[in-house]
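Entry:
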Amino acid sequence: MIPYRSLSFIILGILACTSQASAGWVIDQAVKGSGEGGKQQIMLQANQMKTVVLAPDGKPEAAFIMDLNAETITQVNYQERSYMTARVQEYAQIIQGAMKGAMGEMEKAMKDMSPEERQMMEQMMGSKMPQAGPKSGACREPRIEMRKTGQEAKIAGYKAVGYEVLADGKPQSELWISKDIPAWKELDPKKLERVMGELVKAAPRCGPASGRQAGMGGDQTWKLAGEGYPVKTVDRSGSGATVEVTKAESRAVPASEFQPPANFARKTLSEMMGHER
């Protein structure tokens, strides 16, 4: 399964779209920081998007395929030679249940911690720990602000403009947006919005993972993403994880790329998640 933080960057990126086009796009990205260093390749064409996580030797380790027409999500595990395909709604419900369970276990584990132990854990987790005691369960979505920094840069040969995302006045992420990569035109905006609406439901608003999703549900973030492709994204909420485009080109993508390998075993999402845990 794709690392959750990586998934959070993928979701932020695909909120950008305008209209559908015929040419495909292949985008190479480097992921650095927070123990998730590596490379990814994004393919987009005709309402389909595939994200491939690559091993150091360049071979695929995992893939995440979204089909907007069929409203399905496919996950491929190349090491285990297996895959699963599920309806988006089913996928979101199972992921949401798994996250709630993990957060509940963390709350139990922290219940008997001393203040010193809790402080150390908060520092390790970037101060995103659930609150113990009577306040546990309280949840409020942060106030999201988007600010144009005025900075410009050239990333992977594309001109980009810098923005910062603030949650309740605190820096959450740094974005560099390029209008010169119209890759999101491959995805139908209405179909994308419907599918993304289901996926966003799986993102926790409270607890240790909430900071990773800050800004995803804000209208301003949607507008900003619509300005172009995020050629660089930096998490400023604690991890410092960075996703940066290293190469982007417009070309036709074979239809077979958006299908799981024919000789891989099909599993259910629950089976794949149970194996990975």
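The domain at 4-127+140-276 is CATH 2.50.20.10 (outer membrane lipoprotein receptor (LolB), chain A).
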